[in-house]
Amino acid sequence: MKKVVNVLSVTGFMFFGAIQSTFAQEAAATESQTFHQILKQNFIDGGPGFMGIVLVALILGLAIAIERIIYLNMATTNTKKLLANVDDALSSGGVEAAKEVCRNTKGPVASIFYQGLDRVDESVEQAEKAVVSYGGVQMGQLEKNVSWISLFIALAPMLGFMGTVIGMIGAFNDIAVANDISPAVVAGGIKVALLTTVFGLIVAIILQIFYNYIVAKIDSIVNSMEDASISLIDLLVKYKK
Predict the structure, then answer these.
(1) CA distances from 230 to 80, 97, 112, 121, 237 (A)
(2) Nearest to residue 209, comparing CAs of 80, 58, 6, 104?
(3) Half-sphere exposure of 32 (CA within 13 A, CB side)
(4) What is the four-CA torsion angle of 203, 206, 209, 211, rounded to 10 degrees?
(5) Label partner for 114 (CA 20 to 30 A): which of 65, 172, 196, 235?
């Protein structure tokens, strides 16, 4: 047991020495390189396998995030103005005029209003049920594909850690082949291990920022939908009287 501890201790010191040596060499070599060249070289050094998979996760995650941001911004509606227009239309032209206002307005709130107005001739209760039901449908549309972003957030660092494990295995194999645990032997494997981990964490951080923004945007729209739906039911009650 004591021998195993000694071997692990020596190996650990060699790993730390290799890390410091690798960073020192990179610092000297990259002084004359641009950021793009450094990024490209580190990506190549990390290995095309796991680095490529993590890059695909970043591209797909960003594509979904950008699509959701555009959709959510287009879905944002000035609910106060819409309510005022619907109220004026109900007072002057009745339900059909109010429905026309909703048809000419983009966003989930206007769609929910239209469904409620379409059922108001039956009863206010039916209109309220239609608003609640269609509100759930619109909420599903807002949250569409968001779960894929969370998947890529979890997947990117796991792939990076897997690359780290494989890099460490390669380092130990090099030690076994060379029968030597000097920093020069293990530096390459440790560098690959570190690069894949860092890249996976960077991808996860970037996607997490987009994910939090999207979730906050969805919550804001859903709150507006709920408040506007309550106000619409109040308008319909007043109209039916």
Answers:
(1) 12, 20, 11, 18, 11
(2) 58
(3) 3
(4) -50
(5) 65
Cβ proximity of 209 and 149 under 8 Å = no
